[in-house]
Each structure stands twice: as structure tokens, then as C-alpha cells.
Amino acid sequence: MTTETLKKPPYLMIAILFIGTFVAFLNNTLLNIALPSIMVDLNIENYSTVQWLSTGYMLVSGILVPASAFLITKFKNRTIFTVSMGLFLLGTVMAAFAPSFGILIAGRMVQAAGAATMSPLLMNIMLISFPIEKRGTAMGLFGLVMFAAPAIGPTLSGWIVEHYDWRVLFEMIIPFAAISLLLGMWKLRNIMPTREVTIDYLSLVLSTVGFGGLLYGFSMAGSKGWGELEVYGTIIIGAIALATFIVRQLKLDEPLLNLRIYKYPMFALSSVISMVMSVAMFSGMILTPAYVQTVRGISPFDAGLMMLPGALVMGLMSPITGKLFDKYGPRLIAVIGLIIMTVSTYYLSKLSMDSSYAYIITVYTVRAFGMALVMMPIMTNGLNQIPMKMNPHGTAINNTAQQVTGAIGTAIFVTIMNAHTKSRAATLAAEAQEQAAASGIQPTEAQIAEMTAQIGQAAMLDGINFTFFVATVVSFVALILTFFVKRVDVTKREDYQAQ
């Protein structure tokens, strides 16, 4: 098998992979809203314990994605899909019928082990199945899965938890996963080039400790604070292991992750922009629910409904953006998208206690529209510059970088929001005490309680607005970087000239 693109894309095969990847992506965010229900049902007293159902899933995925380049290079794509979907199905069944929390979390870990290679595998097959001039359209279809599934998850989860048992979240996935597995075993064929490669076990250990430490440390920082040894200790260990991992990859002839592809300028630039965008994207996913639920007191299901239009816009725009990329290249689309995203993020920093639902939904949806114009064109342009044989490494690096920077961005934004909220609450409390002292009237306990609640809400609102302003600056940085993007001329690529 050569590394050339196929003469005719295997549409049935891609459809089967789409089903499997969509279910895996959907499952990633499906459980978050159900955590309180699971706590009650399984008698879990500590929220940080049940949070491991999400944190553990993310950790296993983050650890295994870097190894996906090795797996895709060494093993046939049918084997990878069958094993991955089989593990995912097994984990889903374990979770659906788990009699205890231990079995439930084990099921989630098995799910994550199966889901980790689904996205890199689909992306690599998309890259090899379509000619370079149609690659934008193909990656746009991939973006439909990448953006829509995780965003639909919370809304769907909120509705199910409100009307049914939380186990339905797993039970409804079982038939889709089973059908995808059976179709894969029946219809998938091996189209990816493979070669004999050996795995460097020290690199695998360093990757696990490095990415796992960073993901865990930054994920815990938002809830436990930066002063905990569990947080800064794991971040330091992760950073040291990651630095050692990077140095080792640059010395090995067959690295676990070939970081030498950063010598290609457009791939390097697209990687940096994607990481900045990932940070900005997670800001909206964290701050908007915090405002809608905590400040405004809107139910989780209604909050999910308010963000659903933005999710649908991102999903529906992705294939359209892919076609625009094929026609106009990445820079014009991405610049327009980032201008829209930066301006709309700024408007989200102007939220008030009585901002209308229409304002919140409109600004959030416009922001999602801008984001949809940026992500896939930038990523596709970067992948276009690297040789086809390096695609597994390019997709693995992109997926890993986005997961790590997403976790880092979330932790930083939560920290900024909490710090500003605390500072603002202290200022407002001092002002209220001065006013009470000046009036000479001693407030009752009920008035004090009401005033404290109002101060808490006002401080939280101010913290959210300030953090959205920081996110505006982050979006502006991505906008500046996008002006340096150039459309890749594939005829100058090494493997293209060799054909």
C-alpha cells in the first residue's frame, strides 16, 4: 500500500467510522450533568470522588492519544477500529449495569481506552481518502462530528436525567456502538499504509507521566486550588517528564511522536493557533454555564438548551467551512472567523444581571459561528504541509496538544474567575458595611443574608465578565497569528514531488 490518496473515497467505510467516532465524542460530555444524580444513587458523599468519572476518562484519553501514531503506523485500520470499538462497547455495558461506583469508573476507563484512537484513526483515513484539493471539505465533515457531538451532550444529558435514570445515558449508546462494531467487522477494509515499527517503552512511560501529570494537575487546580501539593506536585512532575519526553523524541530514529514535523512552518503555526483557540473555546464552555446557572439561577437543562444553537451552528458550518477552505484557502476565512469570535467574546464580557435570553443566545451563537470558521481550515492547512507518511504523527500531536491546552486553559480561566470574584466580593462587602455604618441602621439577620447573597452574585458576575475580557485578549492573539498563515502549495511537498 502506498501513501497516495485513493482514487475513490470509501464512503461506506467513512460512514461507519463516523458513527463510531460520533458516539465516542458524544459520550465524552454526556455524563457531566448526571454526576449529582449518580452521587445520590450510588451513595457517594464527595463530589471530587464522582468527578473522577469525567477526569479519569479525560486522563486515559490524553495518555493514549500520543500512542495513536504508533498504533496507526503498525496495525491495520480494521484491527484498530474493531479493538477500539469493542473496548468502548465493553466499557459502556460495564457502566450501564454497574452495581457499584468502582465498576462504573472501571467501565468509564475502558470506554476511554477504546475511544482514544477513534478520532486520530478517522482523521487519518479522511486524509488518505480524499485528494488534497478536496481535503478541506473532508475535514469539514470531520469537524461536524468533532464539534456537534460534544456540544449536544450536555443538553441531551440534561433532558434524560430530568426524565429518566442516569443509566439510560449508557444504555442508549450500547446499540449504536454494537451496530458500529458489527458493520466495521463486516465492511471495513484496510486502506491505511502500515510498516513494521518498534515502540520505545521509555517514551511511552514518559508520555504517560508527562501528559497524565499535566492533565490531572491542571484539571484539579480549578476545584482544589493551586496551593495543594496534589496540584502543583503533579504539574511539576508532568512538566519534567514532558520535557524529557520531547528531548528523547528528537534523538530517536523512530520516536513515539515525531516532533520533527514542527520544522514545517505552516504545521507549527497551525498547531500554535489551534492550541490558543482551544483555550479560548473552553473559556466559553466554562464561563457561560457559570453565568447562566450560578448568577441567573437557570436550570441545567434550560442552560443546555440556551447553548444548543451555538453547538448546532458549529456542527452545520463545519462542512461549509471546508468547502470555503478548498476554494479560498485558510487565511481569509480564519481572519473573518477570529474577528467575529473576538468581538462576540468581548460582548460576553458585558453581561449583566438582567441580560435577556435573546442577547445571551445570540452572542454565544455568533461566537460559535466565528469559531467554526477557524478550527478546521487552520488545522487542515497545517496537515497539508507534512508528508502523508507523517499524518499519524500530525493528527496525534494536534489531538494531544488540544487536550492538554484545553485542560490548562480551563484551569487558568477558573482560577482567574475565582480570584476576581473573591476580590470583588471583599470590596462590595466593605462598601456595604460603610453604607450601613453611615446610615446608623443595624440590618437584621434576614437583611444581612439577602445582602450577602446579592454581593455573591454581583461578585461572580464581575468575575465572569473580567475572565471573558481575558478570553477576548486570547482570541485577539490568535487573530494576530492568523495573519501569518499562508496557503500550502502541495506541489512543493516532499512526497508530492517524489510521485
TrEMBL record:
GO function terms (MF aspect): transmembrane transporter activity
InterPro entries: EmrB-like, MFS, MFS_dom, MFS_trans_sf
GO cellular component: plasma membrane
Membrane topology: Multi-pass membrane protein
Family of the protein in this entry: Belongs to the major facilitator superfamily. EmrB family.
Record keywords, A-Z: Cell membrane, Membrane, Transmembrane, Transmembrane helix, Transport
Main location: membrane
TM segment ranges: 12-35, 55-73, 85-106, 112-132, 139-160, 166-186, 198-219, 231-247, 267-291, 303-320, 332-349, 355-380, 464-485
Name of this protein: DHA2 family efflux MFS transporter permease subunit
Domain Major facilitator superfamily (MFS) profile: 13-490
Subcellular location: Cell membrane
Pfam families linked: MFS_1
